[in-house]
Amino acid sequence: MDFMVFQYPMITVQACLDGLLLGILFALIAYGMALQWGVMNIINIAQGDLVILGGYIAYFMYLYGIHPAWGVIVSPIIMYFIGVGIYKLVINKVVDRDLFISILATFGISILFMQLMNFAFGADVVLANSGYGTTMLFDNNVTLPNSKIFSAVISIVFAIGLVIYMKKSKLGRAIRATAQNSRAAKILGVDTEKVYAATFGINAALCGVAGALISITFTIHPYMGLPYTIRSFMIVIVAGLGNLPGVAMSGMGLGVFEEFADYILGTEFRIGAVFLLLVLILVYRRFKLSRKREYLK
Amino acid sequence: MSKNIFLYSAILIFGLIAPFVFPAFKVQLSILCVLIVLATTWNIQGGEMGYNTFGNILFYGLGMYLCASVQVGMFFPLAEWTESGGEKTFVHTPAQFFQGMAVGLVVAAVVPTIVAGLIGYAILGLRGHYFAICTLGLGVAAGEISGGIEIIGAGQGFTTPPFPEVGGLEARGEFFYFLSFGALILTFVAVRAIYSTRFRLILNAIRDNEDKAEAMGIETMKYKIIGWMVSAFFCGLAGGIMGGLVGYIDSTDVAFDGREMGVFMVLMAILGGKGTLWGPVIGATVFHIFKEGFWTFFLGWQYVALGVLIVVIVIYFPEGIMGWLREKYPEKFGEVIDEKDRKAQVELK
User: Fold this and answer.
1) B138: exposed, middle or buried (C-beta count within 10 Å: 0-12, 13-18, 19+)?
2) Which residue among A105, A111, A279 places its CB closest to the CB of B306?
3) Distance in angstroms (rounded) separating the CA atoms of residues B40 and B234
4) C-alpha dist (Å) from residue A14 to A20, A164, A244, A267
5) Could you tell me if B31 and B210 are in contact, meaning their C-beta atoms sit under 8 angstroms apart?
6) Residue ranges of domains in chain A
7) Distance between CA atoms of A204 and A227, rounded to whole angstroms?
8) Is there a contact between B301 and A115 if contact means CB atoms under 8 Å apart?
9) Which domains are present in chain B?
10) CATH of domain A4-296
11) What is the pLDDT along chain B (349 residues), one digit of tens a residue?
12) Which of A105, A112, A268 has its CB closest to that of B147?
């Protein structure tokens, strides 16, 4: 235990800033999760692995001498097709089934991806160096890598772009209609099968963007996927489905929580703290809901 | 009934002579027994109660750590033992070993039961996928946290006491085989007894429609917690035995191994057939034979094979072997089928 945080206010500022910038990334991943959950009623355990795969695409561009920031453009395009491929192979068979079936099937995909990435890219922790340098704030007490600012800006741009796309475009409207009532949408001539495939592809593309940004700002490792899934799940249930400002807020809140947990408990308990927080939030939610049920009585 | 007695006694006799007939497979058979225990107890939640949990691994790992800690801690300072790693500075005498194992197994079974009872009220109120993800988080959190605790070996692992030689006789394999076989018999008999009571009907009612069951006056929460406690008891016991069998405990790779054992128990129960007494037993056996037979061909590719296997079983075979048999031979399951009705249905298909 380390209570430096409370003695030196600059560390608090540092943790808050880091957390906010990290949280924006989490919110982007959670947005994809909310999208597929709302439209297809699927919880994708492989979400985090898609993120890591997107990160490896950017890392490979870096290895071949291309600036990894271009990964933000390339990775979502590749990931879109991977996402559609996964949908055609597996997800379309579990869409209408019991939710647990989809959880287990995507868990299988997650294990598969984890190991394939381990073979393809090795089990080392890697990062793509963007060479953006750092900004010093508050008399050099707070260091802020420019890559983090870059990633936050790009995430916001992508999120806003997607929101506009969902509002204005034909496909966006079809997706929203399917989310509201898939049967009615089908009757009105929406090809729901295509909509589902596109939704899963867009989700994978979002993961690709987030992954490319993570490979620039943080590190990636084949086995690091599951925590990202859990984080996005947590953000979505805290915010509620279809509440986008809520997703952004709870994403940033989670980022700040993680940074503080890192400082106070130590890095080895960071992931554990995230998972425990998930359990606590779910339990809190259960008691809140059960109180509501009692009122009804 | 008499047919069943023959079947049971045949299995019992096979189990008793197996380690002497197939001495090379002692360890594999012991692992099989543990896997069957885990699949059977998962089935209480996932099959009978409809609460698909990834979290039974929590009790398994807890039992594993508790059994080893008690076994060491009863006679030697635990912190020094784990600090020394694999160095054998402290040696258990046979009497100490067996005493420690006995007490350790009791603790390993009882403490997870209490833990299940304590957290059950909070967790079992969740429904469906919230429950599944919550238990998944619980298992992973336990692994991450136990990996940070110094006294049980933190990241470097915990070596369980080595089996003592009694009069120059090397009986480690037999000892652990009969221990796990005993646990299997205990579990099977207990679960079979439970399934023949009203308790099973209550669990099935919860699975089919929980709100309606509650409206019928069943205290669903009470029965859910009891069901989970039964699971936790046997999972803890299996974990304690497995810890001694493997001889080395690591937080995320052996004890709270959600990626292997945690998925295996779900997969085995689904493969065999959820919600049946024999399903998990058959599923675990088939799965273990498949795993041991083919794992060597997939050297390095085991997890890829596992991922594909999960997807294939879940998508194409969700009813499991027992479900398939039931579809094919409904008469054997005591279902009376109107032949006309059946033909009409087949024609409809």
Assistant:
1) buried
2) A111
3) 9
4) 10, 33, 26, 16
5) no
6) 4-296
7) 17
8) yes
9) 25-318 (1.10.3470)
10) 1.10.3470
11) 556 788 888 888 887 877 777 777 788 888 888 899 999 999 888 888 888 888 888 899 888 888 888 888 877 777 777 766 656 666 777 778 888 888 888 988 899 999 998 888 888 888 777 888 888 888 888 888 887 777 776 667 777 777 777 666 677 778 888 888 899 999 988 988 888 888 888 888 888 888 888 888 888 888 889 989 999 999 999 988 888 888 788 877 777 877 778 888 888 888 888 888 888 888 888 888 888 877 777 677 777 888 888 888 888 887 888 888 887 777 776 666 666 766 766 666 5
12) A268
| Dist. CA B66–CA B114, nearest whole Å | 13
Cα-Cα-Cα-Cα dihedral sign, residues A14, A16, A21, A26: positive
Give the tokens for residue B226: 């009891």
B118 and chain A in contact, CB less than 8 A: no
Beta bridge pairs of residue A126: A220
- ipTM value, please give it: 0.82
Give the whole-angstrom CA distance, residue A20 versus residue A253. 7
Token pair for A144: 């802020």
CA distance B162 to B87: 11
Query: Which tokens in the block code for residue B3?
Result: 């047919």
Segment holding A134, helix H or strand E: strand A134-137
Of B130, B148, B155, the CB nearest to A272: B148
The stretches of chain B forming alpha helices (DSSP H) are 2-21, 26-43, 56-73, 78-83, 94-123, 128-146, 172-195, 198-208, 210-215, 220-246, 261-272, 279-295, 302-316, 320-328, 339-348
Give bridge partners of residue A135 from the DSSP assignment. A144
For residue B136, CA distances in Å to A274, A275, B13, B120, B245 come to 12, 9, 38, 15, 25
* Residue numbers in B near A90 (CB within 8 A): 311, 315
The C-alpha atoms of residue A179 and residue A266 are separated, in whole angstroms, by 42
